[in-house]
Amino acid sequence: MSKEKFEISKREGVHKEFESYTGNWKGVNQMMFKEGEVTDESPIFGNIKLILGGRFLLHEYKGSYGGEPLEGIAIYGYHIDKQRYESAWVESFGMGTGILFSEGSPGAKEWSFTGHYGGETPETSWGWKTSLEKDGDDRLIIFSQNLRPNGEKAGGVRILYERIS
Questions:
Q1: How far apart, in whole angstroms, are the C-alpha atoms of residue 51 and residue 60?
Q2: Lowest-confidence region among 3-12, 78-87, 119-128
Q3: Which InterPro entries does the record associate with it (predicted)?
């Protein structure tokens, strides 16, 4: 990637859009172990900031599940040369000591990316598709959809954020 492409993206492209996600957020974290059934709902607090000169967004959050604390960190980015969104995610709830790397579809306008975990082969690994959707300037929905090895939806996590600063 040339520095020029990145500077253009910061002025008028995807990387300029990153600025609109920065801030402190609070909201509700909804856990679903079965598709469409909220198992647990709890408060969540997050901070999203630009890092590395605006190349990436860093999302740090804290919440709970069943009264037990949980926290996570995600790095979101847009790979200019490959024309896709990408992320790396770690958390204290279900990933253990693993890092989930996810990629979006090249050329897609939707801010989403999919990673895989578990299983040794594509036929046995599960998918985890995360999408970010802004609802106006001060609302953000982050939805992570769990996908069975056959592609069937299997619950997930929905964060409903409101900007507090």
A1: 12
A2: 119-128
A3: DUF1579 (IPR011473)
Residue-wise pLDDT tens digits, 55-108: 999 999 999 998 999 999 999 999 999 999 999 999 998 888 999 999 998 877
CA distance 128 to 117: 8
| β strands within the chain, DSSP E | 23-32, 40-51, 56-65, 68-79, 84-91, 100-103, 112-117, 126-134, 139-147, 153-163
Q: What is the DSSP string of 61-107?
A: EEEEETTEEEEEEEEEEEETTTTEEEEEEEESSSSTT--EEEE--TT
Q: Is the pLDDT of residue 1 over 70?
A: no
Length of the chain: 165
Q: Which domains does the chain have, with CATH numbers?
A: 3-163 (2.40.128.20)
Q: How many CB atoms lie within 10 A of CB 137?
A: 9
Type of residue found at 26: K
CB neighbour list of residue 125: distance below 8 Å, 6 or more residues apart: 116, 117, 118, 119, 149
Angle at 164 between CA 160 and CA 165, to 5 degrees: 130
